[in-house]
């Protein structure tokens, strides 16, 4: 975390920092993968990364060198209702000429109880002036950074922080750019500053910070998506082309998913010399001994007790279903069995398939009630999920949406 005082030029950069969709693995609070195990890496920067050896923030970032080793970059654009990062416009122009997927971010710095929309409009004006549209090839969704601020030389919970104003910012930005914003935060911030309630972030891809955690991935944010999409794992990284230490990040999905999130055609080659990524996520496979939302969904669709535990009764029911559909009766729910199990549901439908969709939406952080009735709330949650995963937001849960729901809730 790095902060600065108000500059002579009048830039309100109090509390600035260089920290600040989607199918990703679960974020686990105990032992999990180390940052080095994720092959898609990136950086996030601000004016601090332009510090020159002789003093001042005059050193340039060589974004072409950065693109030779990294896949994405987040650039600080604004803070509060007037602050602008001094290097944002120049950096945005330079990074847009490279292969890096990129997005601007806004540091949420509430100074009053009703300034959420004003902050959003300041952010929108600034990034649009720099050329960001949210839809050009290479552009990732815009980012809202919500964390502690600096007041009287100390990092504190924002005194004027209100969940409805965070929501107002997110809604305004989403309406402007027609894409679900990414949210940067920490689980500890939500616990300490938001009474442990992160529901305002539900439906948004999460970029979580956790440093010095060894093999411990970011902890889940209560009430939000149960997994992270981006992980900021250090603020002391070194990357060729950046003159200072820099925040390092990893992406939890596949190369194809990152490209889709950044409006890049799947068949276009990536210039950066990076390792060959894993294949795109497919239908999950669940079998005897497993637990979780995918197991529960399979049980719901089979019409048996949906306790989320894949025991003998579930195995037997799966085999019976497979025999009835002329599938290999191995008792394992894989791609072919899922394809036969799921059915398209939409507004006005009811029953087990609707309840299963609602279970999956809830597992992905959306606020829905699993009542088996496909009403306006469920349709809205489906559309929000589809937008966040670059699917056609038609509000109907067809095979493609089913597959994304099942993969996104994999844990």
Q: Taking strands numbered 1, 2, ... along the chain, how are they ordered across the largest sheet?
A: 1-2-4-5-8-9-10-11
Q: How many beta-strand elements?
A: 11
Shape from CA axes? elongated
Total helical segments: 12
Query: Which class best fits the helix and strand makeup?
Result: alpha/beta
The biggest sheet, with number of strands, parallel, antiparallel or mixed sense and barrel status, is: 8 strands, mixed, barrel
Strand content: 5-15%
Low-confidence stretches: 1-31, 268-281
Rg, alpha carbons: 22 Å
Architecture blueprint of SSEs:
Blueprint: E1 40-45, H1 63-67, E2 72-79, E3 83-84, H2 88-95, E4 101-107, H3 116-130, E5 143-145, E6 149-151, E7 154-156, H4 163-177, E8 182-185, H5 187-193, E9 206-209, E10 230-237, E11 246-251, H6 255-261, H7 293-302, H8 312-324, H9 335-341, H10 352-363, H11 376-388, H12 399-408
Parallel strand pairs: 1-2, 2-4, 4-5, 5-8, 8-9, 9-10
Antiparallel strand pairs: 1-11, 2-3, 6-7, 10-11
Explain how this protein is built.
By secondary structure, this protein is α/β, with parallel strands linked by helices. The protein contains twelve helices and eleven strands. The strands form two sheets. It has an eight-stranded mixed beta barrel with strand order 1-2-4-5-8-9-10-11, surrounded by four helices. Strands 6-7 form a two-stranded antiparallel ribbon. A hairpin with a 3-residue loop joins strand 2 and strand 3. Helix 3 packs parallel to helix 4. The protein starts with 39 loop residues before the first strand and ends with a helix. Mean pLDDT is 85; it is low at 1-31 and 268-281.
């Amino acid at each position: 975390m790095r902060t600065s005082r108000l500059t002579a030029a009048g830039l309100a950069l109090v509390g600035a920092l260089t920290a600040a969709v989607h199918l990703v693995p679960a974020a686990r609070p105990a032992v999990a993968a180390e940052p080095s195990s994720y092959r898609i890496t990136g950086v996030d920067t601000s004016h601090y990364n332009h510090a020159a050896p002789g003093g001042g923030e005059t050193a340039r970032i060589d974004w072409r060198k950065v693109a030779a080793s990294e896949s994405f970059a987040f650039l600080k654009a604004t803070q509060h209702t007037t602050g602008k990062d001094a290097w944002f416009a120049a950096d945005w122009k330079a990074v847009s000429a490279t292969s890096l997927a990129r997005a601007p971010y806004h540091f949420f710095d509430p100074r009053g109880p009703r300034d959420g929309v004003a902050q959003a409009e300041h952010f929108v004006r600034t990034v649009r002036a720099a050329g960001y549209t949210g839809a050009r090839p290479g552009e990732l969704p815009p980012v809202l950074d919500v964390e502690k601020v600096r007041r009287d030389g100390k990092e504190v919970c924002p005194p004027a922080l209100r969940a409805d104003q965070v929501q107002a910012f997110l809604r305004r930005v989403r309406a402007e750019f027609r894409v679900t914003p990414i949210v940067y935060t920490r689980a500890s911030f939500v616990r300490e500053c938001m009474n442990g309630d992160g529901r305002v972030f539900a439906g948004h891809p999460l970029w979580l910070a956790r440093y010095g955690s060894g093999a411990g991935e970011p902890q889940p944010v209560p009430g939000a998506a149960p997994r992270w999409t981006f992980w900021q794992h250090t603020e002391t990284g070194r990357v060729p082309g950046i003159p200072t230490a820099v925040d390092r990040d990893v992406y939890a999905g596949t190369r194809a998913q990152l490209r889709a999130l950044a409006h890049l055609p799947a068949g276009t080659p990536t210039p950066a010399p990076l390792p060959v990524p894993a294949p795109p996520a497919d239908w999950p496979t669940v079998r005897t001994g497993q637990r979780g939302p995918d197991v529960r969904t399979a049980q719901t669709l089979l019409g048996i007790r949906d306790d989320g535990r894949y025991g003998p009764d579930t195995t037997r029911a799966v085999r019976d279903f497979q025999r009835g559909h002329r599938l290999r009766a191995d008792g394992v729910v894989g791609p072919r069995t899922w394809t036969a199990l799921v059915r398209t549901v939409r507004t006005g439908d009811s029953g087990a398939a609707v309840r299963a969709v609602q279970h999956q939406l809830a597992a992905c952080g959306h606020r829905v009630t699993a009542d088996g009735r496909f009403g306006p709330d469920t349709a809205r949650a489906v559309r929000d999920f589809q937008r966040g995963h670059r699917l056609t937001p038609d509000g109907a849960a067809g095979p493609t949406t089913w597959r994304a729901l099942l993969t996104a809730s994999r844990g």
